[in-house]
Amino acid sequence: MSIDFYVKGNQFMINGEPTRIISGVIHYFRVVPEYWEDRLIKLKECGFNTVETYIPWNLHEPVEGSFSFEGLADIERFIKTAKKVGLYVIIRPSPYICAEWEFGGLPSWLLKDKHIRLRCIDPLFLEKVDAYYDVLMPILVPHLCTNDGPIIAMQIENEYGSYGNDQKYLQYLKEAMEKRGIDVLLFTSDGPTDSMLQGGMAKGVLATVNFGSGVNQSFDKLEEYQPNQPLMCMEFWNGWFDHWGEKHHTREAEDVAKTLDEMLKRNASVNFYVFHGGTNFGFYNGANHGEKYEPTITSYDYDVLLTEHGVPTEKYFAVRKVIEKYVPLPPIALPEPIPVKDFGEIPMTKSAILFDSLDVLSIPAERICPETMEEMGQDYGFIYYETKISGPRKDNKLILQDAHDRALVYLNGRYIGEITRWDQQEIILDIPEDGARLGILVENMGRINYGPFLKDYKGITEGVRLNGQFLFHWTIYPLPLKDLTRLEFTDISKMVHTPQFYKGSFTVDQPADTFLNFEGWKKGVAYINGFNLGRYWEIGPQQTLYIPAPLLKKGVNEIILFELHGTMKPSIYLSDTPVLEKKQ
Questions:
Q1: Domain with 387 in it: what CATH number?
Q2: Where in the sequence is the active site (predicted)?
């Protein structure tokens, strides 16, 4: 598939022919690799000619200097699969991607040095970017269209005008790509406003705009800054993401189709953000911070053309109908539906209490003051702080200075309340005469992925006070919870409302997609056969966690729930129906 892709006036050209790019976002890192081809075929059958994906730096360099390009991180396999299906590819690499992804794709280890300045010409930041690009770009170069690959374009930074105005930084990234062999079309994408375009456009780089409605107004603004160039909506927001505690966002198919029609009438190109959302597996969900901190849920369903588990929606067929008005399409030929199964109720028969398991899950460290996850060399998960307080003390206010994000407080092992960065900020404590052991379990619920508060340190970021008195000398247990194999489980004898791991097993004759219904559970993290499915929380909106069939195996399967608050019914249900909205 030899491709000569370039700009001529206000047209994209492929092999000398004017071409409209109709693209859709599928994030390889939110879909199990076994399903990449299924999702890409469905994209092609909808009338699209291109797939676009971000590349999250934190997935590929989880530890500084240590790189991963396997499994969910196998970007080359994804690109090759897209080529096999007959799609062009647009790549939007790091350093920053937003994407409602943890820290906007930036690796948490960047924050170990508190002097670092993100997304600017800061030499310390660029040194890290260069080391990453030295590894990433050579992987992409063989797949460029200039080398007979499917990659026709790449982005130099993401929505930069929403963050800063460092033109030297943008030029540095452009040149960093070019000198490593990236010779395809480069572009930027920004909101269609004066400030965002002024901050985010870069000399010698094609500008595109992002929006969900207001087609003519948005494209008119782009043409003010970039006349006689192709019009492209790089992010057509045809759905939206959800935060914990919100209602599930939806958008009518008819409205999406109408907006798309307006774009195509202007001879514009478009990239659907997103075509298929997938799942924020593990601890990779991001968070926003407008007036307050708002973490994103595990599901990235987004109410778009394919559901979280890959089923075409009403929106899929409405969009295809619009595309058919402008592009001749063959009869639709969708892959066979992927089986979905109800495996029924699964009893959780064994448990392990967190506070009895600290020494097998973590190596404790003694510190004068509480330290953040980043200072402790930890990326995701939980962190536990413990100290001894002298007594007696009555009616003392316990204050955590800037705890990120949700802290559960224990006195002599007994739960006494929570302190969060978005709500309750203090707890009243009575310390007995012989003193007490104070424990604080802090959950990192996702680093901020957008806006001015990207430097989002996790854990206790300042200190702990009783009234005005700081508490010193702490034992700290980092709890990334990546490996649970050393946990010692015992039969459940009584229901203890303290953080603990619950384990159950079930037998599968034939793996199929299924959904973990966590009704009756409060808040925690679910694992299937050692794979971290993500967080659950009773406040919703989502009430099930998606389990793709490739995570199951024939025979016995193991499920573990790390439950923070306890349950009255230690069982879960594996259903054939997703629940994306909490019952009102």
A1: 2.60.120.260
A2: 159 (proton donor), 235 (nucleophile)
pLDDT per residue as tens digits for the range 269-286: 999 999 999 999 999 999
Asked if 144 and 16 sit in the same domain, the reply is yes
Residue 194 to residue 471: CA distance in whole angstroms:
49
Q: What is the C-alpha separation between 537 and 543, in angstroms, rounded? A: 8
Q: What would the pLDDT profile of 515-544 be if each residue is shown by its tens digit?
A: 999 999 999 999 999 999 999 999 999 999
Among residues 159, 294, 374, 563, which one is catalytic?
Answer: 159
CA pair distance 160, 195, nearest whole angstrom: 11
**Distance (Å, whole) CA 378 – CA 341:** 37
pTM of the model: 0.97
Spot the catalytic one: 235, 371, 375, 563.
235
Residue pair 190/196 in contact (Cβ under 8 Å)? The answer is yes
Is there a contact between 94 and 173 (Cβ–Cβ < 8 Å)? Answer: no
Is 235 a catalytic site residue? yes
| 95 in the same domain as 165 | yes
Quote the number of domains for the chain.
3
Domain range for 553: 344-353+488-575
Would you say residue 185 has pLDDT above 60?
yes
| Contact assessment for residue 146 and residue 183, using Cβ atoms and an 8 Å cutoff | yes
> Residue written as tokens 């539906």?
337
- Give the E-state strand segments of 354-447 in sequence order: 365-367, 382-389, 393-404, 406-411, 414-420, 426-431, 436-443
Residues 22 and 164 placed together within one structural domain of the fold? yes
